[in-house]
Specification:
Number of helices: 4
Strand order of the largest sheet: 1-2-3
Distance between the termini: 23 Å
Structural class: alpha+beta
Order of helices and strands: EEEHHEEHH
Helix content: 25-40%
Strand content: 15-25%
Shape: elongated
Bound molecules: iron/sulfur cluster
Number of strands: 5
Radius of gyration: 19 Å
Amino acid sequence: MIETRKSFCRFCHVFCGVEVDVEDDRVIAVRGDRENAASEGYTCPKGRAEPERIHHPDRILRPRKRDGDRWSELSPDDALDEIGAKLRAIIDEHGPESVAVYVGCGGASTSRATASSALRSRRTSSTSTTPTSRCSSPPTRLHRT
Ligand code: SF4
């Protein structure tokens, strides 16, 4: 049986109101919630593609590392250690302004990245980034589902 739940999209900081169809604990459809006072039924294609993002069989679930034409999986701890060591080497050689990170929009799915970017900036004095949304400009609000 399909159950419809009201929620909000966490893909970016616009947080559009959505109705989510769930069947057997699987999200099968997302559409704009016309009763949401802020978004009034608007969703962008990214929000409506959430079922595919959540359940896609090729979804990447672990860090990957490219070595030439090949990719291998590694643990999150090993990935962070490698990335940290490389960033440390770049900063040591070229200074803190040589590193910048784009963290997306600051929505719930990227809030940890935003927080870690702020922390990184404080620790290294490196370039800050500006969280922003690429899908919430006024023209896109004309597109309703
Ligand atoms: S603009 Fe798109 S990605 Fe952002 S909250 Fe709304 S549906 Fe989600």
